[in-house]
Amino acid sequence: MTDEIVTVVQDEGLGNSAHLVDLGDGRALAVDPCRDLRALRRVADARGLRIAFAADTHLHADFLSGAVQLTATDGAEVFASRPGRRAFPHTGLEDGDEVDLGGLSLRAIATPGHTGEHLAYLLLDGDRTLGVFTGGSLLAGSAARTDLVDPSRTEEFARAQYRSLRRLADLSDDVAVWPTHGAGTFCAVGPREPGSTATIGSERATNPMLNAPDEDAFVQLMLESLGSYPAYFRRLPEQNRRGPAVLPAMLDLVAVPPDPQSLVVDVRPIESYAACHPTGALSIPLRPAFASWLGWLAPDDRPLLLLRDADQDPQEVLWQAAKVGYTNIHGEIVGGIDAWREAGLPTSSIPLREAFRSDGVRLLDIRQRSEYQAGHARGALNVELGDLTDRLADLTDVPTVVMCSHGARAMGAASILERAGFENVTVLAGGPGNWTAANPRGGESAS
Fold first, then answer.
1. Are 59 and 180 members of one domain?
2. Are residues 191 and 71 in the same domain?
3. What is the pTM of this model?
4. For the chain, what is the domain count?
């Protein structure tokens, strides 16, 4: 029955889900909508629903909330944590508060840990609990990290998260679990399940964070599982507290002449970038994960110039950027790469190769530390892509093969190396397994 009432709207790139609740009278509740409302609106329109309410579980770090946007465009009433001190009109809720949605109701449960003001919401049909929107507390097979608010309070929040998860685990086995963070998010710890829904019973049986024997063991597991996260995570909570600016339904992208003074963000496929790109351009190919890597690698305080192929949707680029706070893409190169070349401006290329037999090259694995530890090519140096700019001084300019799992992140790393003056960089079209197959004895690696 809950599948008929609650629709999961997944954001594959951020590893998150919004939830659309059909209230049965043509109105809907949106839980944790992001600023890019296009997918949510498609679902609502297909079901003939008007979004009358929006609820945020916490002050998000990985995306800008769409709640303010829904108030401006749809007249939606916003529910959020009163201790969050949001600076825009909303209904502030605390532990135990309940709101009538017209048949169904929503009850707030204080679940601090991921953030201090975090709320989960029970969806009630009379006396029956249909499910719980857990946001960044209990996740499918995991729990959300506790180091985003203040690194000095990470353990304090981990202990709060333990108590919050135990409170949720006391719900009935058949209560559906609807988390916001899922597989692929940087907000979770440990392995995440690809699915975004579960039940309290299934989580109690299988979730390692719920099966920690005691609070100290939970805290140790949490602290040992914390990985890196994009720098923009530190900016967005305050922007969400103030309330993101309302944007038009269509975002503008002005066509401008080639400009060698601008930082070019090249969103074309890596094959196109490898063949020819503006010298110094930052490669962030347009794909579901574009927003995360834009937020990790590009500045948000200077104008960016876009280079795309004609068949790439500029609205997709702009909305992905806007949902992580980037509204500084001021234009795109009219005429694309051909116009850049015709203007006589400098271009470069970077070899993109299938795995090949080679000794004496430096293997640079730019995946996340957890990916590297799960398996890597012999002799490979691990520098996470998000850390590469700060680690350039540690690297010498020797023949280098850059690898990730498929080439997209590796090309981004190669573009950073090129900007820093590295002259002999090759990108592996594949992953460590491909390299190992071509170099079964490992070979020698340069330092």
1. yes
2. yes
3. 0.94
4. 3
Beta-bridge partners for 331: 305
CA distances from 147 to 153, 228, 275, 371, 392 (A): 7, 10, 41, 20, 26
Among residues 242, 275, 305, the one where a domain terminates is: 242
In the chain, pLDDT over 90 holds for what percent of residues?
Answer: 91
Q: Per-residue pLDDT tens for 276-292?
A: 999 999 999 999 999 99
- Two tokens at 329? 């893409």
Say whether both 142 and 222 belong to one domain.
yes
pLDDT at residue 426, rounded to an integer: 98
Q: What is the DSSP string of 99-156?
A: EE-SSEEEEEEE--SSSTT-EEEEEEETTEEEEEEEETSEETTEEE-S-SS-GGGHHH
Q: What is the rounded CA–CA span in Å between residue 225 and residue 25?
A: 44
CB 133 within 8 A of CB 175: no
What CA–CA distances, in Å, run from 64 to 72, 137, 147, 245, 325? 15, 18, 19, 10, 7
CA dihedral sign, ordered 321, 323, 326, 332? positive
Say yes or no to pLDDT of 247 above 70.
Answer: yes
Measure Cα distances from 94 to 23, 31, 250 in Å: 23, 17, 36
Condensed to tens digits (0 to 9), the pLDDT of residues 111-139 reads 999 999 999 999 999 999 999 999 999 99
Where in the sequence is the domain holding 289, given as residue range(s)? 255-348
Position 191 in a domain:
yes
